[in-house]
Amino acid sequence: MINIDNIKNKSLHNIYPNLYGKNLDNELLDKRFINLLKKHNELFKNKTASLFSTAGRTELGGNHTDHNLGKVLAASINLDTVAAVNKTDNNIATIISEGFSPVKVNLDNLNYNKAEENTTDGLVRGIAFAFKQKGLKIGGFNANTTTNVLKGSGLSSSAAIEVLCATIFNNLYNSDVLTPLELAQIGQFSENNYYGKPSGLMDQCACASGEIISIDFKDKDNPKLINIPFIFNEFGYELIIVDTKGSHDNLTHCYSAIPYEMKNVAKFFNKNVLSEVPFEDFLNNISALKKELKNDRSILRAFHFFNENIRVEQMNKALLNKDINTYLTLVRESGRSSYEYLQNLYDDDNPKEQSLGIALALLDTLLKDDGAYRVHGGGFAGTIQAYIPIKNSDYYIQKLKQIFGDDSVTKLQIRKNKTLCFA
Questions:
Q1: Are 346 and 356 in contact (CB under 8 A)?
Q2: Catalytic annotation, pick one of 30, 203, 243, 347
Q3: Are residues 239 and 225 part of one domain?
Q4: Distance (Å, whole) CA 3 – CA 230
Q5: From edge to edge, which strands make up the β-sheet containing 372-375?
Q6: Are both 390 and 289 inside the same structural domain?
Q7: CB count, 10 Å around CB of 269?
Q8: Are 418 and 23 in contact (CB under 8 A)?
Q9: DSSP secondary structure string, 170-216?
């Protein structure tokens, strides 16, 4: 437990670097947590609280491969959702998040409620249900949160709140017995079954794990996670996300078509997902696939899947070998594959809106091979990811801001620590 005086006495300064990287402002971070504790006391009349932090995430490789149980490279980042929390004697979980309506969930009733779909209430109830199903304890708590994980940016603000709630139950009532993977699986369970969204597991894994993680989803119940310690700034590159301000409205059909078309290719081979299909079998049956599916795009998307899986393995090896040049080459290849084969840069029904393509064209012109750039996350609108040389980063960022706005560029750093209670 911690209070405001502890923070004023710099008690968190040795913790900040593993959460927020080297380029941080201790005074600004102290102010953030002091304000969080002040709000907690105002809301719940507690001057001391436990502090929790769950990171957002960024996808580094494996664009749209997880839903076919492929391979992904992702990372926890320095943007996070933080909470001040107190255990209570009642059985009510209360969460008050900055800018949102209060959430109060009576944990005596853990039944699915359709009216709670697409709400944080549903997420909390589903997480509590998953804990009970595992034979673990649950109980009441009061929490207030604030976040700097950008909503709609592909940095996974929703997965961060899921993992945060699971971490609170895990810490307050179960002595932190669950692994990051188990916390992620509980978050996914709740999102799928109580929130009503059929998400994969990548976002939750990356939010929970810390560092860069390589994930192989082939065994969907027990995906293989490997942590890779690597800090891009130490090799001369700034990792940034660029919000190109494209609208996500009415794009559900675009997102859902990708797994649907990939799985149609798998069905040709009597398999459920592409990870079950040998690449050679796919290559040897392209003519038959064209005749059977009558959808060339599905074949191109399968090409992306198979080659992206290989690329993720190569990216892992490059990072482990500290080979930044090979890694950046592979990032550019991943970006081109998404553009040309996966085709998730713009909506076919609205080809005049191509803000992602403009951002990539600008960076291709400016950077050439000194850096890398790719679509980030789902695509069709939203954000791109780029690695820009630190020595000229101000110049490149200013060029991007001239097109997409002063608030369009966010610098990211890789977070070392997993999701945690740190005070």
A1: yes
A2: 203
A3: no
A4: 34
A5: 372-375, 383-389, 237-243, 409-412
A6: yes
A7: 15
A8: no
A9: HHHHHTT-S-HHHHHHHHHHHIIIII-----SHHHHHHHH-SEEEEE
Question: What counts of helices (H) and strands (E) characterise the chain?
Answer: 14, 12
Distance CA 22, CA 307 (A): 35
Q: Identify the CATH number of the domain in which residue 21 sits.
A: 3.30.230.10
- On the 0-12 / 13-18 / 19+ scale of CB atoms within 10 A, 398 is exposed
Q: Is 40 helix (H, G, I), strand (E, B) or coil?
A: helix
CB 223 within 8 A of CB 188: no
d(CA 205, CA 207): 6
**Other Cβ atoms closer than 10 A to 420:** 20
Written as six digits, the tokens of 368 are 């050439």
**Per-residue pLDDT, 378:** 84
Q: Are residues 175 and 219 in the same domain?
A: yes
Contact between residue 61 and residue 110 where contact means Cβ atoms under 8 Å apart: no
Whether residues 207 and 320 share a domain: the answer is no
Across-strand partners of 387? 239, 372
Question: Residue with structure tokens 């998307």?
Answer: 301
Range of the domain at 10: 4-230+415-421
The amino acid present at 343, given as its one-letter code, is Q
Mode of pairing for the β-strands spanning 92-97 and 141-147 = parallel
CB 410 within 8 A of CB 241: yes
Q: Tell me how far CA of residue 115 lies from CA of 101, 128, 157, 158, in angstroms.
A: 16, 17, 22, 19
Q: Which residues of the chain have pLDDT under 70?
A: 151-157, 247-249
176 and 285 together in one domain: no
Q: Is 203 tagged catalytic?
A: yes
Map tokens 């713009």 to a residue: 346
Task: Name the domain count of the chain.
Answer: 2
